[in-house]
Amino acid sequence: MERVRLMTWCRTCVSGVQLPAFAAAEGGLFAERGLEVEFVDCARATDYTLEGFAVRPKAVASGYADFAFTAVPYVLAAQTELDGGLGARFVAVSHQRNPIAAIVRDDSRFQVPADLQGARAARWSMPWFAQEYLGAMSFMGLDPPVLVDGPDPDAQLLRGEVDVIPTWMDMTLYRAEKGYAVHPIALDIETYSTGLLAADRLPLDLVTRMRDAFVAGHQLQLDQPELGLAAFRRRFPKVSEQHIRDNWALYEPYAFDGDAPGAMHADRWGATIEHTAATHGLSAFAAEQVYRPELLAPAVEYASA
Description:
Layout: E1 2-7, H1 15-26, H2 29-32, E2 35-40, H3 50-53, H4 55-62, E3 67-71, H5 72-81, E4 88-93, E5 100-105, E6 120-123, H6 128-139, E7 146-149, H7 153-159, E8 165-168, E9 182-186, E10 194-199, H8 204-223, H9 225-235, H10 241-255, H11 266-280, H12 299-303
Helix pairs in contact: 1-8, 1-9, 1-10, 6-11, 8-9
């Protein structure tokens, strides 16, 4: 057995992204591939900017963990800071589409992305979400929003000071119990946003086995949802069972999106890198500095081999 460390992500923001790995651990998929996986806590962000969250991919490169769930903007921010010397790359994609969404009040006129043109969007304590939203509107050829700064986007939306709270679809649960009815409008642009990151120091065979177990864990989580749920709650007992189930329901359509879970394709990665760099003012690195090109083949071929 080879022991590896997998860095978890926010236990409430993106529970669903992590469930396939917990299912793989509980169901023996890692063990079948000769792996003993230790789940370790995510490195603490220095602040809520992209640069603050870049500590997480840097923690993989520095040896705190071997693998991690993380976001494409975090990795590009780390590569930009280190001038391309991060030493960690993506080996599987989680969200096959970008889950950026607009939270709007139910009593508003906003129903589809085209309605959001020129609307007032909250630039809240994680300001890069507003930038991500602005970039997605541009990607769709829609007129940009008006960004409004403020400390409490929910209060701003309630008072009518903003029309939109930009966030990931996975995080819309935070807005569901604020005392007034809201609904999300998904932008769903065809770029990658999250995935499994691996340290460059790891040999390809080990990385492939880890990737395959994670991919197979998606179907296992579908077939036996209690496996991942039980393992996740042992690790994070304060997160309610209902929250985890709801978060998985939000993530599942993005993972099973007409392709094998985890699959990576060069053309979409090219669009992703170009779009993310332009949206956030980061460097557009060569593809091989962002993901391992050896793993571009559909992940299902590896997982079923």
